Amino acid sequence: MFEVIGMxxxxxxxxxxxxxxxxxxxxxxxxxxxxxxxxxMIAIAKGTTNAYIVEELLGKPIDKPAYTIGVTLPQKTMxxxxxxxxxxxxxVLKNGVPVEGMTVIEAVxxxxxxxxxxxxxxxxxxxxxxxxxxxxxxxGGTIGATLGIVIARRIEFVIPVGLEKLVYEDxxxxxxxxxxxxxxxxxxxxPPLVPVTGTIVTExxxxxxxxxxDATLVSSGGVGGAEGAVRLxxxxxxxxxxxxLELIESIQGEPPFVA
Length: 259
Fold this sequence. Notes:
By secondary structure, the protein is of the alpha/beta class. The protein has a domain at about 20-75 and about 85-205: Rossmann fold. The chain has 8 helices and 12 strands. The chain has helices spanning about 15-30, 30-40, 50-60, 105-110, 140-150, 170-180, 205-210, 240-250; strands at about 5-15, 40-45, 90-95, 95-100, 115-120, 125, 130-135, 155-160, 195, 200, 215-220, 230-235. A hairpin with a 2-residue loop joins β3 (about 90-95) and β4. α1 (about 15-30) packs across α3 (about 50-60) and α1 (about 15-30) packs across α7. The longest helix has 14 residues, at about 15-30.
């Protein structure tokens, strides 16, 4: 006789900060990241979600607001409490051990196939698995200095990005819209959007990696701290769904990124 495996469904809500923590745990669980921790290099570019990844990789808390660059803040209520003018140094790991004094860009220049570069994104076309990165630096910033090397050397490019950053047009179209052309008058700061592809890790991939369940985004938003939150439907074997619920319960209550 065949054993009948019970299937189950559950619904969960994750705030933006909770999603970042979940995605960070998922990134660390990636086979490519686990391999590079044992034998290889991992470079984690600055970013809000990446600050959580640094904590998960190092196994200790860091001053997360000090591991950011180019953050998006409200236009008229610029609450910068918790952000830091003095930034933490870049985190680069070689065989799981931090390399002191090495920047992410320097690390990528030394990388080879099998090494891992982790960089977050500002926009996500999930269906086509293309992300977009806003570039404010006149020389292209981190992505401008690394993308060509990452592609040429087949370095594993991990892109952690929350479902809050979904866009409804394809990234290439949006990228063209953000570029200045002859005749355009730029009235305020309008950073261009650079399309990138790689190993995209959202809440969906994180739950699959960590608990072997399927997650579907069914709604978004909320109030009272749930602004930008996502509601996910989780499906799978009952034991796995229960595992996912326990994992999510353990990260619920994650404080907002900026206090």
